[in-house]
Design a protein that fits this description.
single chain; about 300 residues; alpha+beta
């Protein structure tokens, strides 16, 4: 364990959080859809806003680095892990409520569960999110999207914690949502809750659209392998997957990491891949695509625990 996170830190956190929700040396491979990553010094799972605030306040005073995690669906953790505390807002933080055409969800709720609830209530607007494996918090943070829809299309407001641990409700326009980015990333805000304003729709049409998207994902994406979804952002005027395919990189591999032949925009864990395998392959793809097309691919995946920028 890192010298910065000693036994006294653990004891203090166990006073703040429920029993069993403070884990030491927790393998991050258990908490990312890539199934890759070394241990976090500490892994904590608060159950309330007050517990989150108390834990963050204590860790800030103690000078301990903190990373806020959802479902780990868009994340690559280094093989060495993370020297600090991973604060997960997921299964312990999934409350959902409805008020007419608005759904309010805590940040740990899966976007797919939110979309399902909307469909049950004959509310349209979230169909695009039905196959996104991330959480509400991660979806807002990254302005997640698929099949022509984005979080910014339906989000009304969000409850956040500022870096100074101030609890605030911010409107959508204050979040500065853009392609796979938000002000929350730059300001290091913690997303606690989102309110989504939807429209009344036909249950049959909503179900049909969600099924259409499910079939498209199943047929076109390598869902049978662990991955972090689309590895690269869509370059303006291009499609990352096509640029990679045109560069002859379908099936290109490094150790257990591989460019999916089913969808070249995905780097997959074909079995036993390390984070170093994935990073090496990403860099190789970027270099070859740049030489082949002149386009610099930017990663959509986030990185944690690396000594240098990826």
């Amino acid at each position: 364990m890192s010298k910065r996170v000693d036994i006294n830190i653990i004891k203090e956190l166990r006073q703040i959080l429920p029993e069993g929700e403070v884990l030491s040396d927790e393998p991050m491979s258990k908490h990312t859809t890539f199934r890759i990553g070394g241990p976090a010094d500490l892994f904590i799972r608060p159950k309330s806003v007050q517990e989150i605030r108390d834990a963050l306040s204590f860790l800030e005073k103690a000078g301990i680095p903190v990373f806020v995690l959802g479902n780990g669906s868009n994340l690559l953790v280094s093989d060495q892990g993370f020297r600090g505390v991973v604060l997960q807002l997921f299964r312990n933080f999934q409350a959902l409520s409805a008020d007419g055409k608005c759904l309010k969800a805590q940040s740990g709720l899966l976007l797919s569960a939110l979309a399902s609830e909307a469909a049950k209530r004959s509310l349209t607007g979230l169909e695009f999110a039905s196959g996104i494996p991330g959480t509400v918090g991660g979806g807002i943070l990254m302005n997640a999207g698929a099949y022509g829809g984005e979080i910014c299309d339906v989000l009304q407001e969000a409850v956040i914690l500022t870096k100074e641990n101030e609890l605030r409700t911010v409107r959508k326009d204050e979040l500065g949502l853009s392609y796979r980015r938000s002000r929350a990333m730059d300001e290091e805000w913690v997303i606690l809750e989102g309110t989504f304003e939807l429209s009344e729709g036909s249950p049959e049409a909503i179900t049909a659209r969600m099924e259409e998207m499910r079939e498209a994902r199943t047929s076109k994406q390598p869902l049978e392998y662990p991955s972090a979804g689309s590895t690269f952002k869509r370059p303006e005027g291009y499609f990352a997957g096509k640029l990679i395919m045109d560069a002859g990189l379908a099936g290109e591999s490094c150790g257990g990491a591989c460019v999916s032949e089913k969808h070249c925009g995905f780097v997959i864990n074909r079995g036993g891949a390390t984070a170093e395998d994935v990073v090496t392959l990403i860099r190789r793809v970027q270099e070859i695509v740049r030489k082949n097309s002149g386009v610099q691919l930017e990663t959509e995946v986030r990185f944690l625990g690396f000594d240098t920028d990826v």
